[in-house]
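*** Protein under study ***
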Amino acid sequence: MASPPVESQEARFQVHVTAESHFSWLRTRLSVERTMMSWIRTSIACIGFGFTIVQFFDRLGSMEGIAAALRPQAPRYIGLALIAAGILALAISLVQYRWGVRYLWSEPYRSIAGAKAHEMQTPIIGLTIMLMLTGLLAFGAVLVRAV
């Protein structure tokens, strides 16, 4: 039995400039943006929830009539872990986003984009970096807080 012929990479991805391919490219590009925004929302939730856990249990321990915690440092460690997970998720998503955008603007697909690369800038990278710095600030605040 003969093996099936192997397709070349060029024959597999023939790009035809049509309105349909242009709008498919736009849908894919916007999908990359939506995915990044989902990562950002998840990361904000992790960072915020981690910081809130630390603050809540810190205040709870100072209230009258509340029994002392068996492991008073546990909320701090859980909060730090959640904040770190949020920062890490932002970093990973930023790398994934940059890879996806670079791929969509690569040579085979640039012709169907219908726009120049510098015309499609979004503030999402700046927002992600700002949120990473905020997360690092929250992590540092929880880490160096006197207990």
